[in-house]
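Dear Dr. H.,

I hope your travels went smoothly. While you were away I took the liberty of generating a structure for the chain from your last submission, since the lab meeting agenda had it listed for discussion. I wanted you to have the full record in hand beforehand rather than looking at slides cold. The sequence, exactly as received, is reproduced here:
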Amino acid sequence: MRILKKSRGFIPFLLVLLMLFPSLGTSEAGVKVAILPFRIYSEKDLGYLKRAVMDMLTSRIGSAGDITIVRSDLAANAVKKYPDLEFTEKEVLEDIGKELGADYVLFGSFTVFEEEVSLDAKLVNMKDASVKPFYAEGKGLGALVKMAEDISAKVVSSAGGIAAAEKVLEKGGKVLDAPSYTGKFAAKEKERPAAEKEGLEEEEIVIKKKKEEGGFRGKKKLGDDLFEGMEMADLDGDGKKELVLLSEKEIVIARIKGDDIEKISVIKGGGDVRNVSLSSYDGNNDGRPEIYVSRLKGASPDGCVLEPGNGGFVYSLCGIPFFMKAVNVPGTGMALLGQEFRTEWGFNKRVSFLKRESGMIQDAGDFDIPAGVNLYDFEVFDITGDGRDDVVSLDDRNRVRIYEKTGDGWEEKWRSPETYGGTLNIIDIEKEKGGKNFVMINAGLLYFDLDHDGKNELIIKKNIPGGMFGGMSERVRAFKSGSIMGLDWDGAAFSEKWKTKDLSGYVADFLIEDADGGDKEIFILVGESGLFSGKGGSYLLSYKIIIE
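The corresponding predicted structure, in token form, is as follows:
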């Protein structure tokens, strides 16, 4: 605490100032936060709202006792020094933060589209360059006050702690829920003998690497290609499952033999063919699944069916004008779905049931799905435990959304504040509504009741962006690490039930399968990210599930 050596007459005047303007009393020894001017995305001129939002954020965040807000004119002047650059680039942010002497830099935008209003912010920690995203949305401009309070509390929680955040919430015009803990909720494991614990990646993680048991175990290099997808199915009916791997130019069929992976067949595409995805599905009802390969040829899909033939594996049918995916549809069972695509604009809105008939793949009618959700973004299952099937999707910002059926339509029930997923399987397009010139092909969204508690868990991958700009870039081109986690719905949000250790590189895809007819395992396809392109070789990991 500072000791002011001033006359007694000055002290009452100072106390009055402190009561009228509490931010004047903030200690310089506390945390300094620089709030950069937010961007506005709207068809109307809403410059006055920009000032209002900045004032609300400054007032709410600055009301925390241990936080000092950098003067707004200094922050604005620092940004003006980069007229030809996006100041959201990581290097620029770091320069601005250093110039302002800030411990944290907050930047973001708010978007107004008709009645929908959203506030998107990111907080950069200058100490370790980590970035924490925050998001709030509402209807009508009147919702901005509550949204600004919500974002402010989360920023203060990150920069000043939970106690400081609760003070901000108390001072707000409305009572908000205190920020919930979003860290790791690891499943508790029963006490095990020391010899058995040796195989655990971490004691609290309920995923075990196959060490002392027979069969494939550990880590296996797959070559120099970056494989983006995989399937595991008994394609030839011999009782053993084949491993099918997909890269942009090749399909590799292999068998897992003991501790090795043996290639059986390699199918290459033509010069203008780009592989996109693959799905295992028994379309001709002969008791054996086929592999449905989605490919892009020129500007549109040219899918194929991969089956045994000519002493190996061949494409028995091509020219399918859809991207395809097999989905377990409640009340129907496994079904093949398709969606049209063009590189001029991306996905068509309509998703269809597909059926194999008379040597062709035919459109069999509409599949009901929320607007804006594409073929590779979702699964359909009861995640909330209310007995009704939900659409659980990963949106184009890598946030999980839950949709609930209401009458003839779908209503968004929940959206995650955290991001998940992350993919390098990206198709360039000319233009998509919303301005993006690329489409992400998501993979790695499954559901299982692994611990047999009667509730489904969402099993999802989470890749951590790397590269120069990390997660601040709209299009991530490299990832530094990834993991697989099981999320449990607690009635209001997801909590983390279990998680693998962080894996160096990029988690492209994963499966939960019983490769040798025994216990189910998690197979993880990992790409070794290149320094600039994000694309190196690939390897396969196997973990035994020991949830009890």
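Two observations you may find useful: Confidence is low (pLDDT under 50) at residues 1-29, 162-216, 530-534. Helices lie at 10-20, 47-62, 72-80, 90-100, 144-160, 162-171, 194-197.

With kind regards,
E. W.
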